[in-house]
Amino acid sequence: MKKITINDLMQWKQEGKKFPTSTAYDASFAQIFESQNMPLLLVGDSLGMVLQGQPDTLPVTLDDMIYHTKCVRNGSPNCLLMTDMPFMTYATPEEACKNAALIMQAGANMVKIEGGSWLADTVKMLTERSVPVCAHLGLTPQSVHIVGGYKVQGRQEKQAEQMLQDAIELQNAGAQIILLECVPASLAAKITRSLDVPVIGIGAGPDTDGQILVMHDMFGISANYMPKFSKNFLAETGDLRQAIAKYMEDVERGIFPDEAHTIA
Ligand code: KIV
């Protein structure tokens, strides 16, 4: 696989070419994903739940993310690699810079942070200092205790308008990818159309530029609950590599997510 950069994603957005993404946490799976030409991998702090068996992502540490970033980079030298900054490691722009540097030095090409326009200064400071940023909006799992659960976000008109404004503000601050989790498909489509940067969705309907799945959900092996919008591609194909290939093909052809895996 050739080395993938943010420029490839920008070009795919302009061409209307949909792209798949997955989480990965270790070298073996990263190598398998790379052998299937998965362009973008996320070392998600979902590892707190799917690897560590924690009830949420809050206990995940910076050291955990650095360790797993190194593992994934070793297995996939060519993917565009994005790593989550864990809870409270980007509470101020200064802390974000210090901690993001360690994640980039571990092999990431981009960091992902959760939150709306309050993060604009942080995004500006990071990107001005050459740390590319993906901004995660909608259901932001690190906010689970403030929100009171894992709930669809953006159903009310005011909330939807705020999310669109947040996305625009974060793009203007320098964010190079926006990720939307668990939002109604019509809102995700509107945000995707309104932005120049690529938008990746999970539980955000078929109209975002890219899709992402937690790999344990793709294989139906999550210890915890499996969200309605996820799909077990291993059950459909019976083979790990074929499951990845089928997921990628279905995203590229616009077949996944279908209506059954979309939040209306
Ligand atoms: O941590 C993670 O795996 C994520 C995805 C759900 C997008 O943020």
Automatic annotation (TrEMBL):
CDD domains: KPHMT-like (cd06557). It catalyses: (6R)-5,10-methylene-5,6,7,8-tetrahydrofolate + 3-methyl-2-oxobutanoate + H2O = 2-dehydropantoate + (6S)-5,6,7,8-tetrahydrofolate. Binds 1 Mg(2+) ion per subunit. Keywords: Cytoplasm, Magnesium, Metal-binding, Methyltransferase, Pantothenate biosynthesis, Transferase. InterPro entries: Pantoate_hydroxy_MeTrfase (IPR003700), Pyrv/PenolPyrv_kinase-like_dom (IPR015813), Pyrv_kinase-like_dom_sf (IPR040442). 3-methyl-2-oxobutanoate binds at residues 45-46, 84, 112. GO terms for molecular function: 3-methyl-2-oxobutanoate hydroxymethyltransferase activity; magnesium ion binding; methyltransferase activity. It is found in: Cytoplasm. Its main location: cytoplasm. One of its GO terms (biological process) is methylation. Its EC number is 2.1.2.11. It comes from the Bacteria. Its cofactor is Mg(2+). Pathway: Cofactor biosynthesis; (R)-pantothenate biosynthesis; (R)-pantoate from 3-methyl-2-oxobutanoate: step 1/2. SUPFAM superfamilies: Phosphoenolpyruvate/pyruvate domain (SSF51621). It holds the Pfam family Pantoate_transf. Homodecamer; pentamer of dimers. Belongs to the PanB family. PANTHER family: 3-METHYL-2-OXOBUTANOATE HYDROXYMETHYLTRANSFERASE. This is 3-methyl-2-oxobutanoate hydroxymethyltransferase.
